[in-house]
């Protein structure tokens, strides 16, 4: 890339070629993917790269990566609670490890280690169980005592002074952070190169279902004839499914996050506390990127609230008292489509050709590559890959849930 | 900040309340429900972008569970009321 940059600078011809192009919306595609986030674009990329399905449109009502993909706190990990979850997210971590090479784009994946703090005996028990489940699946994960936490993260208050002293932590060395925009752009670039059409500023307005099959979609760019529609719209999943007459077990909650002004590097691990409802990492620019649990009631509004800021500031100061003078630069919210069991919903619905990749709650970004790959496999092969069978929509009717509440989020 | 009107106590800050989920009437005869109907009642939600009728609990106040109709985007609260036995929601007809 750097040689390319130098060459472009010297030859004076101006800009590098566009990473993805605009096209007129065609009136038919083999596959229409709704939602130009990391999931939708990854699926488009894998369809083209691994299954030679290139007649694909990704439609996005805003700009690509403007939803959850650009609003998350970019944490990657695989230390989940259920064997199904651990297997799935671990495959995702492996794909993140190869991503920069595969997409020929630097996604700045930094496997700096991930610590989940336990402040209660109950939490310590859950961590111990998670560590054992993780190890059985070959994931590096162990319970460590407070002095070890302090060695890995100087500055954290491991004394017995805070209201909820730190008792132990689940240490997951392969966990880390990635540049989330780069993931979106990398997939968009490689999908575009292989012939996928990315339509930004194009919203879905209807799904044309005849009998029990999809035959097309109505968009602000016109009618598109297609037999396969993938709903990859995160927080808006229910509204899109409603257009196809499919009711989903989703409730949409906003999740807020914020960044502070840049500080000298002091935090080279990711710190998460379920009991204090906070997670934090330091970006390459030195900003502290922080998030909390979802807002206390359902909403499609992405407004910031003072209640969130007060809560997260208080919890952060319990962990890092020396941050009391640090100022916050930005605060924002994204929409999370929560499921009853804190696991996603992937695959077929009762409407033929209408597929879902939703229910990603607060944990969708870290699963982007593996979701893209497995959903592409599902679309190309018209059968559910084994890795995502546990996440099928019909599990609710079969009362075969995958309970990830203990490891998937901090809001419990 | 969202202000909700508790039918007992009047207008209060939302932080006094706990959200109790979308209003979701129980099937008329739960014992006779098939798996699909029971799963639909337990798990499926409208999750509407628009006016949603939902349960709220006045946790830091009088302890009343009541219903509020609120727009999930604009946060405008159209109505709050005490539950009535004939309360019908969208979906109450078992669709």
Q: Which labels suit this protein?
A:
heterodimer; A: 412 residues; alpha/beta; six-stranded mixed β-sheet; B: 95 residues; mainly beta; 34% strand; globular
Structural class of chain B: mainly beta
* Backbone shape of chain B: globular
Contiguous helical run count of chain B: 1
Measure the end-to-end span of chain A: 44 Å
List the helices and strands and how they pair.
The complex is a heterodimer of chains A (412) and B (95).
Chain A (H helix, E strand, L loop, with lengths): L1 H10 L19 E4 L3 H14 L4 E4 L15 E2 L6 H21 L10 E5 L2 H16 L5 E3 L1 H7 L15 E5 L3 E2 L2 H14 L3 E3 L4 E7 L2 E7 L2 E4 L2 E4 L5 H7 L7 E10 L9 E4 L4 E5 L5 E7 L11 H14 L8 E11 L6 E4 L5 E5 L9 H14 L23 H4 L4
Helix pairs in contact in A: 2-6, 2-9, 3-9
Chain B lengths: L2 E4 L3 E4 L4 E5 L12 H9 L7 E7 L7 E7 L5 E5 L14
Antiparallel strand pairs in B: 1-2, 3-4, 4-5, 5-6
């Amino acid at each position: 890339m750097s040689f390319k940059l130098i060459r472009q600078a010297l030859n004076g011809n101006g800009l590098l070629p566009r990473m993805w192009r605009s096209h007129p919306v065609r009136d038919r595609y083999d596959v229409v993917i709704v939602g130009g986030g990391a999931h939708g674009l990854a699926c488009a990329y894998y369809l083209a790269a691994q299954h030679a399905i290139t007649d694909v449109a990704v439609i996005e009502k805003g700009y690509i990566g403007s939803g959850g993909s650009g609003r998350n706190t970019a944490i990657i990990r695989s230390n989940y609670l259920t064997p199904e979850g651990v297997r799935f997210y671990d495959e995702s971590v492996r794909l993140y490890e190869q991503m920069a090479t595969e997409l020929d784009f630097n996604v700045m994946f930094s496997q700096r280690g991930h610590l989940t703090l336990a402040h209660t005996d109950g939490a310590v028990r859950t961590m111990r169980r998670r560590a054992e489940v993780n190890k059985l699946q070959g994931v590096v994960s162990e319970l460590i005592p407070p002095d070890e936490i302090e060695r890995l993260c100087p500055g954290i208050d491991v004394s017995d002074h805070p209201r909820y002293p730190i008792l132990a932590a689940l240490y997951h060395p392969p966990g880390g952070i990635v540049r989330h925009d780069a993931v979106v752009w990398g997939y968009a670039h490689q999908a575009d190169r292989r012939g996928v059409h990315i339509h930004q500023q194009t919203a879905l307005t209807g799904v044309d279902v005849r009998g029990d099959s999809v035959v097309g979609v109505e968009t602000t760019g016109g009618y598109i004839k297609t037999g396969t529609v993938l709903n990859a719209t995160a927080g808006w999943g229910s509204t899109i499914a409603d257009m196809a007459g499919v009711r989903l077990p989703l409730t949409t909650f906003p999740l807020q996050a914020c960044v502070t002004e840049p500080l000298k590097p002091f935090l080279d691990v990711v710190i998460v506390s379920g009991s204090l409802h906070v997670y934090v990492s330091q970006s390459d620019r030195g900003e502290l990127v922080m998030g909390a649990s979802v807002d206390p009631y359902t909403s499609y509004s992405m407004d910031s609230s003072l209640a969130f800021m007060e809560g997260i500031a208080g919890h952060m100061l319990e962990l890092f008292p020396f941050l009391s003078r640090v100022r916050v630069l930005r605060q924002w919210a994204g929409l999370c489509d929560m499921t009853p069991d804190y696991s996603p919903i992937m695959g077929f619905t009762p409407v033929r050709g209408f597929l879902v990749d939703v229910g990603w709650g607060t944990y969708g970004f870290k699963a982007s590559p593996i979701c893209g790959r497995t959903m592409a496999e599902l679309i190309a092969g018209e059968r559910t890959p084994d890795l995502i069978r546990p996440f099928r929509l019909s599990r609710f009717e079969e009362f075969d849930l995958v309970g990830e509440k203990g490891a998937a989020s901090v809001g419990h | 900040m969202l202000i909700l009107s508790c039918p007992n106590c009047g207008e209060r800050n939302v932080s006094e309340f706990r959200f109790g989920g979308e209003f979701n009437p129980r099937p008329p005869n739960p014992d006779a429900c098939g798996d699909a109907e029971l799963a639909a009642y337990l798990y499926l939600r409208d999750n509407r972008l628009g006016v949603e009728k939902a349960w709220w609990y006045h946790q830091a106040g009088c302890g009343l569970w009541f219903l509020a109709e609120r727009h999930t985007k604009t946060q405008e609260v159209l109505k709050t009321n005490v539950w009535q036995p004939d309360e019908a929601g969208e979906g109450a007809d078992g669709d």
